[in-house]
Design goal:
mainly alpha, two-stranded antiparallel sheet, elongated
């Protein structure tokens, strides 16, 4: 009976707090003196999401393990996103609208794409210098935007090529 009385006194003496996620008042558990999220499932989900984000930023081992797990999952489920987009047209449209908004914020710059079309005129064989162009706008993945300067160019006619 003494232990129950002590627990009740502790519970009554603890202050109520506001949940970081939902802003509702809650009574922290005595076992978790620094508790800042209430026990609602959505708030606990938010707590775990914030923990995960913080862990990814500060723990290289955790980051490496997460990347490895994601890669393994993608290898097991290669068509997941294609199927998801096909079955969720609202997601596709929302993403398209949001990408246009992001592109609109970057004014005066071109958008680099992996699958850009090949131009009608091709550069002739020759020696060129490539210079990385800084701050060239939005680039996908590991694309470099470069300036090409011709140093020497020797274009062979079709007849010269055929003779070889």
């Amino acid at each position: 009976m003494h232990a129950r009385y002590t627990f009740l006194c502790m519970e009554n003496s603890m202050e109520k707090r506001r949940c970081v996620a939902c802003s509702q008042p809650f009574q922290p558990r005595p076992q978790v003196p620094e508790q800042s999220y209430c026990s609602a499932p959505d708030c606990q989900r938010e707590r775990r999401k914030q923990w995960h984000r913080q862990k990814l930023q500060t723990d290289p081992d955790y980051q490496h393990n997460q990347a490895r797990a994601q890669k393994a999952w993608m290898q097991r489920n290669p068509d997941y996103w294609r199927k998801y987009r096909k079955s969720h047209p609202e997601y596709v449209e929302r993403n398209r609208v949001r990408q246009k908004q992001r592109n609109a914020r970057v004014t005066g710059h071109s958008i680099a794409k992996m699958d850009v079309s090949i131009p009608e005129t091709h550069l002739p064989s020759g020696i060129y210098e490539l210079r990385l162009v800084a701050d060239a706008g939005i680039a996908k993945m590991d694309v470099w935007t470069v300036e090409i300067t011709v140093h020497a160019c020797h274009s062979l006619s079709r007849a010269d090529i055929a003779k070889r």
